[in-house]
Design brief:
Helix content: 25-40%
CATH topology of the largest domain: HIT family, subunit A
CATH superfamily of the largest domain: HIT-like
Number of helices: 9
Strand order of the largest sheet: 8-9-10-12-11-13
Number of strands: 14
Shape: globular
Structural class: alpha+beta
CATH class of the largest domain: Alpha Beta
C-alpha cells in the first residue's frame, strides 16, 4: 500500500476493495477472509459479524423486530428451526444471515440448559450411575421428553429430511437406524455439516448401555454412516468426518453425531461432552469380562452446569459430603 493510500479515510479503502475470491470462512459462518485488490495491489479483507446487542431489554426487542424473511426449515413437537434475515430491505435478495431455533413451549429444564452458568467437571462412577443417574434417566424418559424422537422413528414427522434408513447389520428391526440433518445445520454449508443418526432400538438410552455384545452392531453403524454420508455429499471423504456421542446427552435415546472435522469445536464437541464412537468401540473391545461387560462398568468424567439437576441433586451434594437427593 502506498503512503497516499494509507492517509485516506478507512471507509474509502473499504469502498475501493475489489473482491477476487473467498479465502476462508469459519464453520459457524461468522467470519470470512476475502482476497481482493486496492489500486491493483492485493489485500485481504477479514469480516466478522458484530456481537448481538444484549445490554438492555430494548436492544433485545430491537433485534427481534429486525428479523424478517423467516423461512421454516422444519418442526417436530416443541422444536422448530428457521433461516431468516436481519435488517433486510423489502424486495431485496439478501441471503439469510440468521439461523433460528425455537423451543416452544419450553420447560424449566430448557431454561436452565440455555442460561449462563458455572461449569464443573464431575466423575461418575459405576455406583453413582447405578444408584442416582440411571433412575434420573428413567424419570426423564417417562416425562415424554422423547416424543419428538419417536415421531421421527415412527414416520410421523420429518420424513422428507431422512437421508438414510438402514435395517442394521443382521436385518433385525432393533438394529436399524436413520439419519437426518441436525437442527443446527443450515443444510447447505459442507464445512459445517452436522447430521444425526437415531437408532431404532429403545433399550440403549446412552453410551452407558453399550456392551461388548454390541461391538459388531456399532462397527456396522460406523461403517454405514461414513459410507452413506459421502454418497449423499460427494464433496466430502470419509476421513473428513468424525462420529461422536454425547454424555450426558440432551435426551436419553442413543444417537450419533456425524460432523465435518473442520467444524469448529464448541462446547458440544469438547472433552467432557463428546466421546468418539471409535474410542468407545475400542474401549469395549479391551474391557475385561464376558459379552455383558460394558460402559456401565467404568467411570466417566464430564462437565455439568451448576444449574443442571444432576449437579444440584447428585454431584453438588456428593461434593459437600451429603447424600444425593432422590429423583
Amino acid at each position: 500500500m502506498s503512503t497516499n493510500d494509507a492517509k485516506v479515510a478507512p471507509e474509502a479503502l473499504i469502498s475501493k476493495f475489489e473482491v477476487i475470491r473467498l479465502l476462508k470462512q469459519d464453520q459457524s459462518g461468522r467470519r470470512i477472509a476475502i482476497l481482493g485488490t486496492i489500486d491493483n495491489q492485493q489485500g485481504i479483507l477479514i469480516a466478522e459479524r458484530a456481537a448481538f446487542a444484549t445490554e438492555s431489554p430494548e436492544a433485545l426487542q430491537a433485534f427481534h423486530t429486525a428479523i424478517t424473511d423467516v423461512n421454516n426449515l422444519g418442526d417436530n413437537d416443541i422444536y422448530r428451526w428457521y433461516l431468516a434475515s436481519s435488517h433486510s430491505v423489502p424486495g431485496s435478495q439478501q441471503p439469510p444471515d440468521l439461523k433460528l431455533n425455537l423451543i416452544w413451549p419450553c420447560t424449566e429444564s430448557h431454561i436452565k440448559k440455555y442460561s449462563e452458568q458455572i461449569v464443573r467437571m464431575v466423575t461418575e462412577t459405576p455406583e453413582i450411575y447405578r444408584d442416582s443417574i440411571r433412575p434420573y434417566m428413567s424419570a426423564k424418559r417417562e416425562e415424554g421428553r422423547l416424543n419428538w424422537v419417536f415421531n421421527i422413528l415412527e414416520g410421523r414427522t420429518e420424513q422428507e429430511d431422512v437421508i438414510l434408513r438402514d435395517k442394521g447389520h443382521d436385518g433385525a428391526e432393533e438394529g436399524g437406524f436413520l439419519v437426518l440433518p441436525d437442527l443446527n445445520w443450515d443444510r447447505k454449508t459442507m464445512g459445517s455439516l452436522h447430521l444425526l443418526a437415531l437408532v431404532m432400538r429403545r433399550d440403549i438410552w446412552s453410551l452407558r448401555d453399550l456392551k461388548k455384545k454390541h461391538i459388531p452392531w456399532l462397527k456396522y453403524l460406523r461403517e454405514r454412516l461414513l459410507e452413506e454420508t459421502v454418497r449423499v455429499y460427494p464433496q466430502l471423504e470419509t476421513d473428513q468426518l468424525k462420529l461422536y456421542v454425547h454424555y450426558q446427552p440432551t435426551y436419553y435415546h442413543f444417537h450419533v453425531h456425524i460432523v465435518n472435522v473442520m467444524l469448529e469445536a464448541g462446547a458440544t464437541q469438547a472433552t467432557g461432552k463428546a466421546f468418539g464412537l471409535e474410542n468407545i468401540i475400542s474401549q469395549l473391545e479391551t474391557l475385561d469380562g464376558d459379552e455383558e461387560a460394558g460402559m456401565a462398568d467404568v467411570s466417566l468424567t464430564y462437565f455439568l452446569g451448576e444449574a443442571s439437576e444432576l449437579w444440584s441433586n447428585v454431584f453438588g451434594p456428593l461434593k459437600r459430603g451429603e447424600k444425593p437427593l432422590p429423583n
